[in-house]
Amino acid sequence: MEAMIAVAIGVLTASGVWLLLRPRTFQVIVGLSLVSYAVNLFIFCMGRLSISREPIIVPGVPTDLMHYDDPLPQALVLTAIVIGFANIAMFLVVLLASRGLTGTDHVDGDGDAE
Amino acid sequence: MNAFDSVASLLGNHLVMPARMHLIVAPILLPLVTAALMLILGEKRRRLKALVNLSSTLLGVVLAMVLVYSVHHGAAPGGLDAVGAIGIYLPANWQAPFGIVLVLDRLSAMMVLLTSILGLGAIMFAAARWDRAGVHFHPLFQIQLMGLNGAFLTADLFNLFVFFEVLLSASYGLLLHASGSARVKAGLHYIAINLIASSLFLIGAALVYGVTGTLNMADLSNKVAAVTEADRSLLHTGAAILAVAFLTKAGMWPLNFWLAPAYSAAGAPVAALFAIMTKVGVYAMLRIWTLMFAGHAGASTGFGMDWLLIGGLATLTFGTMGLLASRQLGRLASYSLIVSSGALLSVVGFGQPALTGGALYYLVSSSLGVAALFLLIELIDRSRMDAMARAAQEGAGPLAGAADPFAAADPFAAVDPFAANTNLDEAQQAVIGRVIPAAMAFLGLSFIACTLLITGMPPLSGFVGKLLMLSALLNPLGMGNPGGSVGAEGWALLALLILSGLAGVIALSRSGVRYFWSYPQERPAPRLRVVECLPIGLLVATCVLLTVQAEPVMGYLQAAADEIHSPSDYIRSVLATQPVARPQAGPGLQ
Fold first, then answer.
1. Where are the domains of chain B?
2. B-chain residues within 8 Å CB-CB of A35?
């Protein structure tokens, strides 16, 4: 399971970084989104991977981390998702403004896109 | 204290808590509430909003002064009685490390005060006309202040991330304020780079949490030494990734290519406020590195310090070359920010309390100086363009393009109140456009003052800051204790500090000559508005005060530096502060 998740995060990050380095703003925003998905998954995994464990204490189950999932990364990732989403929405607005002002979707606002 | 008690009793009557304790969270709440209020006021009532914003920022300055005073006199609100200089606030009333903690020590109080003074200068300047160049300037400005204050006060890594995002989100809006293609282009790069840096911040924080199981900085500090050897490289990786995020904000070479275009494209008051933004990165590095990798960190002691030192020196070099290569004043000011970042980062890399004390003084003085310069540049450019327009010789003149590359994008270009002799602002008829006979003298003298401050020439506070740093470098064992070798890195920093000052003098005086002496002969006196001169005067006067009162100020800052370099009091205060007991739980709640 760990290896699979690691590969998934790696592929997402690699694709995201490649897209980020492309010259079109649309590619950049898709790259940013992919990177932020990868980061969110990564935070989630830092609480260790487990299957069907409760994050909240249940009566009758010993209260140690062998029997529970770490709830903190789950709370962190929620915050990170919300902030990341808002930031990418903001970037989208600036992207459109840049397209409108320069008439091109090149990240530098000039030169050949491609 | 009666006023505080009555206000705080309104806020938190159900908790038996000394009301003064709430003072710690006030620098975060005040801008938040003000911003919310101004959103309700709507876009039409600009004059009222400017007034609300000004008074709130002024209140913030008073508040920060109270905090600095109480911290310095060992009577910080909250916290342990034994450690009076560190105030602790538990916002959710959960004991650390389980709940979020706000910590007020000398360093954070000083940074909050510096932020509020810069904020006051910027908002005074903006209230003259910049706030009308786009929507929601005032709420964004207050949110920016909230993010800055929060980042300085928090003692939790993830909370730090949240406040970073708050201040960055507001800064995106402020950078794009007044729009125009240059700002949108710079903003696009700025946002993309900061989004990536935020992702790195999250990766770093998650790694640190994964290894140590805590996000509380004080708790982290205790746990670093106990990390197993197998996990240590993972911890170092996490810390290094975190550092990349901070150093991008601090403007360390090679992570700082975004800085000069973004800052020189921003509107003058926005750029002045941004002068503190690079210092947030420096502050975060200083705080986290002294807590995580100082003497008690076991095998991790001193991790990354060499890199910080080398990076800082490279930044200093880069900034110096940038200063010499720039013609435009906005870029000059941006590169002088990079120079001060470089000096501060290499000082963090040294990890010597005496050196850090001098560097803190330099931080305050250079932030104020650069902020004043950003405001001044706007006035210089405007008066120059005005003169050019009136001279109307040979088209645009040789330097008009260089003086303001954003002329086309300037929201005021179409209705320039000076060029067209129209008046944007009916209520200020008497002030607007009044020719101050000494206007040119004011511009020139302020420019000289800024140059002295930024380059560290006597007699202003920049010189005191640099002198303190140089003397700490030459006396590694402290003043009056001869011995101890300065070392190659010490000599390198010493040489670069002096060289960067020299480059600053050359670059700024070259610009001064070009902007003030190479005017058309029959130029008219520049027209300035008193409201726009006042903030520059305020910032410069603060530096003069810093110079005159250098001894008590330095006493405070040295105490702050000693405090962060021996963080045992900090750690003890954070971890031992107990939550406030509820008077009694309601019978139904049991």
1. 305-390+432-570
2. 196, 199
